[in-house]
Amino acid sequence: MKESRHSVDTPTYTRQLRSGTGIDAHRHDDHQVVYAARGVLSVTTEAGTWIAPRTRAIWVPAGTVHEHYAHGDTQLHLLGIAVRYNPLELDRPAVLAVGPLLRELIIAYTHTPDDRSPERDRLHAVLLDQLRASPEMPLYLPTPVSALLRDLYGILRDDPADSRTLTELGRRIGASDRTLSRLFRSELGMTFPQWRTQLRLHHALILLADGIPVTTVAHQCGWSSASTFIDVFRRTFGHTPGTHLET
Model confidence over 85-97: pLDDT tens digits? Predict the structure, then answer.
């Protein structure tokens, strides 16, 4: 990812992004909360990709070089937070759960960016409280660094439904399953099954945003049945894949 040449203040505003469009790599002097009230949004840094439907938001700390990408027509809400505030106490990107109250707070706050009233100050304080209480969700697909894991990533990115075991995939790229398992833990901080599930969920969100039927998505992403996919999706996102794009 190519870094922008300068840092910019973090604005608070709403924006419509057409499917397949985005915002090029850049960084902000302040923190940012990125929320898609409609569609699915991904945020990518050199470390990996975070993806969020309407029940999730993405925390981007100040100074983080990142780019946005819309999957499906997306209503984007960008919430700038002064660097002196860090309600999450996080210095890395993260995906956060967005309940009904936090959702409405983000929408209301970003729709009135020029308001300087005492009421808006109180709204800002409540927003920080809600962010502070928002749990972090494990929806992060780290980018492999080593050549072996990059080769494996290329195979599964092109075909998430590939059901070969780590041993079988290792034969394909010339590495033992023990070597690959060690690399997954040391380099990506997760096991191969955990990482493959993340990759499949990310791909599933993209397909769903393009209007692909749930059953087709399940099979294209490697789940044995639609019911199994729906169960994993519901446990991860808190709702079924058939309703995740509803506003």
Answer: 999 999 999 999 9
Does residue 205 lie within any of the structural domains?
Answer: yes
Of 57, 40, 56, the residue nearest 237 (C-alpha): 56
Q: What is the CATH number of the domain that holds 130?
A: 2.60.120.280
Whole-prediction pTM: 0.85
> Rounded CA gap, 74 and 88, in Å?
25
In the chain, the amino acid numbered 219 is H
Closest CA to 204 of 164, 246, 237: 237
Distance CA 154, CA 3 (A): 23
Question: Within a domain: residue 132?
Answer: yes
One domain for residues 102 and 178: no
Tell whether 118 and 167 lie within a shared domain. no
- Please write the tens of the pLDDT for every residue from 31-42: 999 999 998 999
Co-location of 135 and 148 in the same domain? no
CB 105 within 8 Å of CB 123: yes
